Amino acid sequence: MDLENKISAREILGRIRNLVLFLFVHYKKLRKTKPTKPVIFFELEDNYWHRYLLILCHFFENKGFQIIIMPKLKFMSNWATLALADQLPDVKFQSTTHFELCISSKLKKRKNTKHLFTDYFQPQISSDAFKIPMPMVDTMYKLGYYKKSKALSTQEKRNIKIFYVGNINKGHNTPTILECFNILDRNQIIDIITRNFADSIAKPPGSDIEMLNMKAEIVIFDRKELNIRPEMLLEALANCQFILGPPGVVMPQTHFIVEAMSVGCIPIIEFPEIFDTPLDDSNSVIFDGETDLKEKIKYVLSLPDDRIREMHTNVIQFYDDHLSIDAVVGNILNPRYQSLFLNCENYSVQQMNNVRRD
């Protein structure tokens, strides 16, 4: 048996295990019940979207919808569906014809039905399609921490000029960022700043509590040095004026950018198209390559307070208009949009690569 068949066999065994576990743990979710709330019905062949689908369900539940998912074997045998069922106690797996909106992975000409696509990074998207933006990490919605962002966004006293925390391990990078998106990877960006602005970089705080009152021009550290607790993250970010927004492992987006923008931090980024409505100079600092990054960091460090306040206000407005739960759910329900694109991370990048090779 060759390697490909071995991998395929392992995947099949994993699927069987997941399905048995799902049926054993979540069999009650398969019982037919009459919904008491407006229904969002998902009709999906498989769960390519993993945590992004989970977060989308959190969004709908926040707005008072009942989530019902068609119980397809392939979908239920996906490990990500187990996680979804664990985190959403009220989700149901059953068929229904009564829904406010059906989101389907197959193109169907049916009333109140929208087609969900996986090729999130394709450059050409029609005007009747909505690209669902990067959210905060799922923990922020599951535990309700995101609710603090509105009050924290108005915090005026911010003592850290530029901030970043994340995984800075060199093994965390992949060639995809340069090959597919033609931007600097995370370690390149951190290295450029630490080499050229060493005198402005402060030592990491001793704790996430200490960071709430820390004063510094630049604070950059690896998550291994200090892992800010999820319940403290938004408070810590609210003490920062700007956040460095390097890309993720395989794509330009990270949850960190959205979390920071939710409390009014101004992003420093190389890829303003990370959102369907691109960021611009009014609400972000955009650089292009190493030389421009160094110039933009100098620019930020010398920026007057009135300009920072103006950009801060614009960031909050951008978040409210495009990234908040109200904005995202509102756009999904908008009759103008007939197609939806939801991020699948590696799977979406792989589709983009396949198109480029063709």
Q: What does this 3D model show about the protein?
A:
By secondary structure, the chain is of the alpha/beta class. The protein is 41% helix and 14% strand. It is built from 15 helices and twelve strands. It has a seven-stranded parallel β-sheet with strand order 3-2-1-4-5-12-6, with helices on one face.
Which short descriptors sum up this protein?
single chain; 358 residues; alpha/beta; Rossmann fold; 2 domains; seven-stranded parallel β-sheet; five-stranded parallel β-sheet; disordered N terminus
Task: Please give the structural blueprint.
Elements: H1 3-25, E1 39-43, H2 51-62, E2 66-69, H3 73-76, H4 79-87, E3 92-93, E4 101-104, E5 113-117, E6 129-131, H5 138-142, H6 149-152, E7 160-166, H7 176-181, H8 186-196, H9 208-211, E8 216-222, H10 230-237, E9 240-244, H11 255-262, E10 266-269, E11 285-286, H12 289-301, H13 305-323, H14 325-333, E12 339-341, H15 346-357
Parallel strand pairs: 1-2, 1-4, 2-3, 4-5, 5-12, 6-12, 7-8, 7-9, 9-10, 10-11
Helix pairs in contact: 1-4, 8-12, 13-14
In short:
This protein is of the alpha/beta class and 358 residues long.
Proportion of beta-strand residues: 5-15%
What sort of overall outline do the alpha carbons produce when their principal axes are compared? globular
What would CATH call the class of the largest domain? Alpha Beta
* CATH topology annotation of the largest domain: Rossmann fold
Report the strand count: 12
What is the terminal-to-terminal distance?
A: 30 Å
The structural domain count equals 2
Helix percent band? 40-55%
Q: Give the C-alpha Rg.
A: 22 Å
Average pLDDT confidence is: 92
The structural class is alpha/beta
Poorly predicted parts: 1-6
* Strand arrangement across the biggest beta sheet: 3-2-1-4-5-12-6
Count of DSSP-assigned helices: 15
SSE string:
HEHEHHEEEEHHEHHHEHEHEEHHHEH
**Quaternary:** single chain
The CATH architecture of the largest domain comes to 3-Layer(aba) Sandwich
Largest sheet: 7 strands, parallel
